Amino acid sequence: MKDKKIILANPRGFCAGVDRAIAIVEKALDKYGSPIYVRHEVVHNKYVVDDLKERGAIFIESIVDVPENSTLIYSAHGVPLSVRKEAEAKKLRMIFDATCPLVSKVHVEIKNLHKHGYIIVMVGHKGHPEVEGTMGQVSDNIYLIETEADIKSLPIPSDVKKIAVVTQTTLSVDETKVILDKLQQAFPNLRKPKNEDICYATQNRQDAVKKMAEVCDLVIVIGSKNSSNSNRLKELAENLGVKSFLIDFATEISAESLIGASCIGLTAGASAPEVLVEGVIKKLNSYGFNDIETLTTVEEHMIFALPAELRN
Ligand code: SF4
């Protein structure tokens, strides 16, 4: 019988921002010992967070829960200014910022726009820590929209002169383009970001899923349920008419879930480690998926530097 096929997306898994954020926690643990306090899950992945917990990281949501003289790390999603101020007002040993530099870039953009009198519209998911962190860079004149339908409820006159838009970094590239075009129609003076706010890793992983969806009859995305970029990969495959699952671990795969599939596209969200991909490949091998091919859409070489105190 002919082997069934796995098409492995490349690029997949860890991006430069996630690599850096995890390395900051690991190196802080090495240098200062446990416990190390991390505000929010450093990246949205259950395996990574559980592993760091075992090594001595304590994940908290509120600065109130960080004891004096301890070391604090902000997650890759970034934090509002109010959180920074609260942390800086406490007597802490060290604070490290694991905010992805591509999220920090949007923070700088927003502060600059606000300073120059722009009304800012952010496109993103309500309640996501990146959105809370980004919107929390300014005190007023900023509005969140999640969908095209939200545009009409914005309390902004259509002829406003100074209006700008920024986006969450992990959105659907195609859906965001539609929303930005509609926003431009509603506000002709809209200023769009000079460079896309959606990051390279989100874009590249979505491009790879588009290619896999052309040839596969199932796309498996490895990532946690609260991972924005992983959810977008699953949605993208489904929008292209291909069945898709988002799973944390290989144990979630059953023979029933693979019925009808002869070619599986396999990818991982930007916060999912390669060890989980290896586990899923092994599991798929046990169901006769032994022919493995890699589909490379682009090579990634991005690296972000660590804070000076944590470099070797
Ligand atoms: S997904 Fe993009 S924005 Fe988020 S950490 Fe990775 S590179 Fe940074």
What does this structure look like?
This protein is an alpha/beta fold and 312 residues long. The chain has three domains: 4-14 and 200-296, Cobalt-precorrin-4 Transmethylase, domain 1 (3-Layer(aba) Sandwich), CATH 3.40.1010.20; 16-100, Rossmann fold (3-Layer(aba) Sandwich), CATH 3.40.50; 102-191, 3-Layer(aba) Sandwich (Cobalt-precorrin-4 Transmethylase, domain 1), CATH 3.40.1010. The chain is 36% helix and 20% strand. It is built from nine helices and 13 strands. The protein has helices at residues 16-32, 46-54, 81-88, 101-115, 129-135, 173-186, 200-215, 228-239, 274-286; strands at residues 4-10, 36-39, 57-60, 71-74, 94-97, 119-123, 142-145, 163-167, 190-191, 218-222, 243-247, 263-268, 289-296. The strands form three sheets. The chain has a five-stranded parallel sheet, with helices on both faces. Helix 4 runs parallel beside helix 5 (129-135) and helix 7 (200-215) runs parallel beside helix 8 (228-239). The longest helix is centred in the first third of the chain and has 17 residues, at 16-32. It is flat. The N and C termini lie far apart (53 Å). The mean pLDDT is 97. It binds iron/sulfur cluster. Iron/sulfur cluster binds at residues 15-18, 76, 100, 102-103, 169-170, 199, 201-202, 229, 270.
